[in-house]
């Protein structure tokens, strides 16, 4: 099927970044088509219905410094509620269970001191990267790209318990073991999120809040904002038609031909004098295998880099981008939710949070509502352990979840009788191949080619959370990338156009900057006090060792 319409822009991918991009362009009367390979909206956000509620089985949490996603939640007339964390936490490490109510697990003073120092060092190194859009300017970028995060851990952490605690934290954030991550990639990730603490913490961090009605619902609402649709269903799939906005589902893009109407002219990568050059998109209906062709003036690719690499490009994309995207892969994760008749763990004084260094479930959180309704536990099989658990049945994964919960929460018999279990194996999802973000290992030239992730090539633009310099890997990053590509495209149609930052967002940014300055001042005070406490603790520990040595000699 050949489309006669020439679209101003085609967007590949109907996740948050794709739908937000399409909405921003449509609002400027730019004619947009969104092509999505799946039969649903949402990308790496997804939900499952249970007891008349949409449960997030993909991206879920939002943080207070993620102003774009918080603004979108308000625009969509949705609300947030805090992630439950009151009560005792559970840590299992080296075969030993710790149940504690304090902020710090009682694993040993020497480990806590070392971990705090390590976190400070990571933040210090991340802050040496002055510009995430040009990380190659940092003199040490090549060195830190040549080692894995595991290499750095082995070189800089003395105690094995400290190593394990850091490894668990990294696994929870990246859905991958430290050995699979370039140290430079880790530093850029933490730089984009404002530091290690913000990425890992609940209160004040990336896991502080949840969206009532599911984060996935935001994509559904964005799709409705994009369209005033009439829905036509036939043997070629489902096509939603709207005013300046169109979405076609079940449409896998497999080929992109740039300068289609002028194949004999040289492509100009700087986008000079090529505004009239058209791009032809070839897509296949994943149900009927019917081939369709679309013409556009601009193309935005929002799918993850590992999937974007599977598309055929004519002419080929620059070598640096191809080399980088071929080296990138998704983290590995299976997310589950297990439901109970009541929040019995809260009755026992537990928060629902579990951290485990075993070879199955790494993290759990309370999935219930703030008032205790809809009792549930959310958990994750992550990293290389996912390979084994992906091969097992859902019932086997359910039994493992029950076992971990039973053992963690005082072996309470109520853990053994959940009323329902659901999970999603993201590694088996054809259109993501893992979750939740792309990662890259050491010695993959990330320091050289990072800029190519977001660099415009002719009239082809790239978005998606991996291309973001703010909260990369999160929903916030997806929205930031949508703003960036919109700012690249809209001036082609509106010459004197000003960047897409509205007055409300400017006010929010100013307020957040003031809040961050206040927080930094408070943190500096707290950090100073912590430093004194740690120094005193270290001196005490040293005196303790000297005293023991002296006593043993006697």
Automatic annotation (TrEMBL):
Cofactor list: FAD
Print the keywords alphabetically.
FAD, Flavoprotein, Membrane, Oxidoreductase, Transmembrane, Transmembrane helix
Write out the transmembrane intervals: 526-547
Domain named Amine oxidase: residues: 16-490
An MF annotation (GO) of this entry: monoamine oxidase activity
Which Enzyme Commission number(s) are listed? 1.4.3.-
Q: Which chemical reaction does it catalyze?
A: a secondary aliphatic amine + O2 + H2O = a primary amine + an aldehyde + H2O2
Binding-site residues for FAD, renumbered to this chain? 17, 36-37, 253, 466
- Which InterPro entries does the annotation name? Amino_oxidase, FAD/NAD-bd_sf, Flavin_amine_oxidase, Flavin_MAO
The EC category is oxidoreductase
Instruction: Identify the residues that bind substrate.
Output: 380
Q: Which family does it belong to?
A: Belongs to the flavin monoamine oxidase family.
Write down what this protein is called.
Answer: Amine oxidase
Q: Which organism is it from?
A: Dictyostelium discoideum (Social amoeba)
């Amino acid at each position: 099927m050949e489309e006669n319409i020439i679209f101003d822009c085609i967007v590949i991918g109907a996740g948050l970044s794709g739908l937000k991009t399409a909405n921003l362009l449509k609002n400027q009367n730019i004619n947009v088509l969104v092509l999505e390979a799946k039969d649903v909206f949402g990308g790496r956000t997804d939900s499952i219905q249970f007891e008349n509620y949409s449960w997030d089985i993909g991206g879920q949490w939002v943080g207070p410094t993620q102003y774009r996603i918080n603004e979108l939640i308000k625009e969509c007339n949705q609300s947030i509620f805090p992630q439950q964390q009151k009560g005792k936490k559970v840590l299992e490490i080296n075969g030993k269970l710790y149940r504690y109510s304090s902020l710090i697990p009682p694993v040993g003073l020497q480990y806590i001191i070392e971990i705090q120092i390590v976190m400070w060092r990571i933040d210090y190194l991340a802050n040496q990267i002055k510009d995430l859009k040009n990380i190659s300017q940092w003199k040490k970028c090549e060195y830190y790209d040549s080692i894995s995060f595991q290499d750095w851990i082995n070189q800089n952490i003395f105690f094995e318990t400290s190593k394990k605690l850091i490894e668990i934290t990294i696994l929870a954030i990246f859905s991958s073991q430290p050995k699979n991550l370039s140290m430079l990639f880790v530093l850029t990730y933490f730089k984009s999120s404002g530091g290690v603490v913000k990425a890992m913490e609940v209160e004040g961090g990336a896991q502080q809040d949840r969206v009532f009605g599911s984060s996935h619902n935001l994509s559904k609402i964005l799709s409705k904002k994009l369209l005033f649709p009439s829905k036509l269903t036939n043997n070629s799939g489902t096509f939603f038609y709207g005013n300046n906005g169109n979405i076609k589902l079940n449409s896998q893009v497999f080929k992109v031909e740039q300068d289609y109407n002028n194949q004999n002219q040289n492509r100009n990568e700087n986008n000079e004098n090529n505004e009239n050059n058209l791009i032809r998109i070839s897509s296949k209906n994943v149900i009927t295998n019917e081939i369709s062709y679309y013409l556009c003036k601009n193309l935005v690719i929002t799918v993850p880099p590992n999937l974007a690499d599977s598309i055929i490009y004519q002419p080929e994309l620059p070598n640096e981008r191809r080399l980088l995207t071929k080296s990138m892969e998704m983290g590995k994760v299976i997310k589950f939710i297990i439901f109970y008749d009541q929040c019995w763990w809260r009755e026992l004084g537990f928060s629902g949070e579990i951290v485990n260094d075993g070879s199955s479930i790494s993290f759990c959180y309370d999935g219930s509502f703030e008032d205790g309704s809809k009792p549930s536990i959310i958990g994750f099989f992550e990293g290389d352990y996912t390979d084994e658990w992906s091969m097992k049945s859902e019932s086997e994964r359910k039994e493992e979840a029950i076992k971990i919960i039973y053992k963690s929460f005082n072996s309470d018999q109520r853990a053994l009788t959940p009323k329902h279990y659901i999970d999603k194996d993201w590694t088996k999802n054809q259109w993501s191949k893992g979750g939740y973000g792309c990662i890259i290992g050491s010695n993959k030239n990330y320091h050289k080619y990072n800029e190519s992730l977001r660099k415009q090539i002719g009239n082809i633009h790239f978005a998606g959370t991996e291309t973001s310099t703010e909260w990369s890997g999160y929903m916030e990053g997806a929205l930031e990338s949508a703003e960036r590509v919109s700012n690249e495209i809209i001036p082609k149609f509106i010459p004197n156009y000003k960047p897409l930052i509205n007055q409300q967002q400017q006010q929010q940014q100013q307020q957040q900057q003031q809040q961050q300055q206040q927080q930094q001042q408070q943190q500096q005070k707290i950090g100073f006090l912590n430093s004194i406490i740690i120094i005193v603790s270290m001196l005490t520990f040293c005196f303790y060792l000297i005293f023991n040595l002296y006593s043993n000699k006697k």
